[in-house]
Amino acid sequence: MKLSIAGLHKVFDDGDRAVVALDGATFDLVENEFATLIGTSGCGKSTLLMVAAGLEEETAGQVLVNGRPIAGPGRDRGMVFQTYTLFPWLTVQKNVEFALRAEFGKGERRRVARDHLALVGLEQFANAYPSQLSGGMRQRVAIARALSYRPEILLMDEPFGALDAQTRQLMQELLTRLWEQHRLTVLFVTHDIDEAVFLSDRVLVMTNRPGRIKLDIPIALERPRHFELFSSPEFLEYKAQLLASVREESLKTAGFAA
């Protein structure tokens, strides 16, 4: 397995009480698989991703990459956040080069950064600063930076959540195209069920906090994928099934029986 989440528990100390965020979450991803986590707000999706990235320490359980436990952050895992984690004082080119400083000399860093900016369609903005870019363009830079050092696994925490609807669709299409052309293992977090179905090989539904995996649905839609899929009967059937599962958890949160 490329990525294994094994019996993952995470407890936060919240002053006078302990908050259990994850309670035995378990699943595997094979190489080049695109999987998405969905669930109600606060169910532990982002916490699970942060533990997988090595940015939070698990309370119990393990995260394995290629069968080996992780020990903090590593270059085998790339991370893209919802917020635009770019250095405002560096140009677009230099932001991507920054991720490569431990791997390559100056000339090679420049070439690799340019290649990855071209991959996301931003080579002509190499000398611009983040403040001069739209939100979607900044997120494309973040994706280029995460891909530039060729991680084995890409972790994405609602990377399009702050974008307007039209830009979000364009970014979904870009990410799908990048994944279909360059194949890597992706674990993606979103609240958007349409987005989850469109992007994924599998969609994993989490329970309310404390988070566990409630449902694991393979998405058997043909690739390459295009936005015409959104109105297809197959797409709508997947969407309805996932909506029903998440709604059931929402009703539990509100104190109602499903």
Provide a descriptive summary of the structure in words.
The two termini are 35 Å apart. The model has no long low-confidence stretch (mean pLDDT 92). The protein has helices at 45-53, 92-98, 106-119, 135-148, 165-182, 193-199, 233-254; strands at 3-14, 17-29, 34-38, 60-65, 68-69, 77-80, 153-157, 185-189, 202-206, 213-218. It folds into two domains: 3-76 and 154-254, 3-Layer(aba) Sandwich (Rossmann fold); 83-150, no CATH class. The chain is 35% helix and 24% strand. The strands form two sheets. Strands 6-7-8-3-9-10 form a six-stranded mixed beta sheet, sandwiched between helices. The longest helix is centred in the C-terminal third of the chain and has 22 residues, at 233-254. α2 packs across α3 (106-119) and α2 packs parallel to α4. The protein has seven helices and ten strands. With 258 residues, the chain is of the alpha/beta class.
- Uncertain runs: none
In one word, what is the shape? Answer: globular
Mean pLDDT: 92
* Helical content band: 25-40%
Which percent band covers the strand fraction?
Answer: 15-25%
The secondary-structure class comes to: alpha/beta
The major pleated sheet works out as: 6 strands, mixed
Could you tell me the number of beta strands? 10
Spatial sequence of strands, sheet with the most strands = 6-7-8-3-9-10
CATH architecture of the largest domain: 3-Layer(aba) Sandwich
Q: Give the radius of gyration.
A: 19 Å
The CATH topology of the largest domain corresponds to Rossmann fold
Per CATH, the class of the largest domain reads: Alpha Beta
Q: Give the CATH superfamily of the largest domain.
A: P-loop containing nucleotide triphosphate hydrolases
**How far is the N terminus from the C terminus?**
35 Å
| N-to-C SSE string, H for helix and E for strand | EEEHEEEHHHEHEHEEH
Give the total of domains: 2
User: How many H/I helices?
Assistant: 7
